[in-house]
Amino acid sequence: MPESEEEGMAEEVRILIVDDHKLFAEVIRSTLEAIGMTVVDVATNGFQALETFRRERPDLVLLDLGLPDSHGLAIGQTIIEESPDTKVIAVTASTDPRAVSEALRLGFAGFVTKDTPVSQFVSSIRAVLDGQVVVPRQMARHIGGARSKEEEQAALLAQQLTPREMEVLQLLAKGASSSQMAKELTLSMNTVRTHVQSVLNKLGAHSRLEAAAFAVRYGIVKVQSDRSVGRSEWSSGDGPGEGRAGG
After folding, report:
1. Which of 3, 29, 143, 191 has the fewest CB atoms within 10 Å distance of its CB?
2. What is the DSSP secondary-structure string of 123-148?
């Protein structure tokens, strides 16, 4: 088998699309299936979304926030609580930074607007599957905002991190695996895992993804978008990264 075909199979994931705009959903479905990803179903409302999610247990859910019977944020929260390993990307026409902040707070792995070019849409999905958190370029700079009491508390938590833990966070935020961090920082795998767990403990996070979302919401890290693919890269203000604990 040619190498390109093998790589396509290796990237195959199971995806649930939740959107009441059938034409949009079918375009996305065709695009994803054409590159070797499996779309398990298309749900058009919140009830169908949860029913299909519980039956199929997909790897990733593309979730429209403007569903006819419920708010997508509530559906996403339920999915994340029931299956922390399932990644959820909010897909919406809205450009309200508050919606982005709330989605990140709830543990969403990404936020993509419906006017995103198809190639960038696919790149965003791959970035999320690689362990990154993705937000729209035009909205990233608005996420921090004025510092509230909660943001002050978040900053205090970040100040507990050691310089080495900050280095680990920088790599976590870029979706680096434990082995990649070990190579970059010239540390053993066990030492990297210890640092990662320490970061999660200090931030009160249960996963790398949760730590990343927390950090973005409260302005502990700043998000910058890669021009070529629309992926998120996070530069340090004071803080965190993402994924699952232990690498």
Report:
1. 3
2. HHHHHHHTT--B--HHHHTTSS-S--
Q: Which segment of 3-7, 27-31, 175-179 scores lowest on mean pLDDT? A: 3-7
Which sequence spans correspond to the domains of the chain?
3-140, 149-236
**Domain 149-236, CATH class in plain words:** mainly alpha
pTM here is 0.58
Both tokens of 95, joined, read 């450009």
User: Whole-angstrom Cα distance, residue 200 to residue 208?
Assistant: 7
pLDDT at residue number 236: 34
Q: What percent of the chain has pLDDT over 70?
A: 70
| 158-204 tens-digit pLDDT | 767 777 887 777 777 767 788 988 999 999 999 988 988 887 888 77
The Cβ-side half-sphere exposure at 135, using a 13 Å CA radius, reads 30
- What would the CATH number be for the domain defined by 3-140? 3.40.50.2300
Measured CA distances, 194 to 129, 173, 189, 216 (Å): 24, 17, 9, 23
Q: Which of 104, 110, 73 is nearest to 88 (CA)?
A: 110
